[in-house]
Amino acid sequence: VPFLVGTTKDTARFGRHTVYPGPRESCDLLKLENFMALKTRFRAFMIKRLLDNPAAKQGYAELEDRLRWTVEQIDQRIAAVDDTAANRKRVGHIIAMERWGQNRLRMALGAPFVRDDSDDYLPNTEQPMAELRQLLQQTRRETVALAERLRTEQRGSTNVEHNDFGPVSGLGWLRYLERHAVLESKLFKR
What we know:
Number of helices: 4
Structural class: mainly alpha
Largest sheet: 3 strands, antiparallel
Order of helices and strands: EEEHHHEEH
Radius of gyration: 21 Å
Distance between the termini: 41 Å
Number of strands: 5
């Protein structure tokens, strides 16, 4: 809470303002650790609701099919746009996120945890769009291969941390990567 400057037993300061609790209020609600606990619980609820639960309902086979099918949709979108720096940058971002997610899937399969970021996986976006398209296809094939390993080794419920969202299941990661790429691909400039 950036504007929470300080608290005492009887007051809390928000920026330049001092708040005096009324008879039913408690300064305990203003404590940073309570806010952080609430934020963590809300984030976990949203991850379950948006990624983990829908992915568990879809199952491995459907997620693998969607990963294969949506990369074809994305490729068609890329083929329909101009080869501009902005569009190459967006394709590079999709590839970087996919590669980063692949590393997290490897962690679900037993690789040691490494705190990394999608920027660590950015391809050279100066290369022609045709080469980036091929790289995206190759990257997605690798994601599908990891999905098949998750299914074979039954590791889809293993949680691996997302830098912003916290713990996400292996199946949730597959859904995240599929949805992220599709949504990003709708932002290309013609």
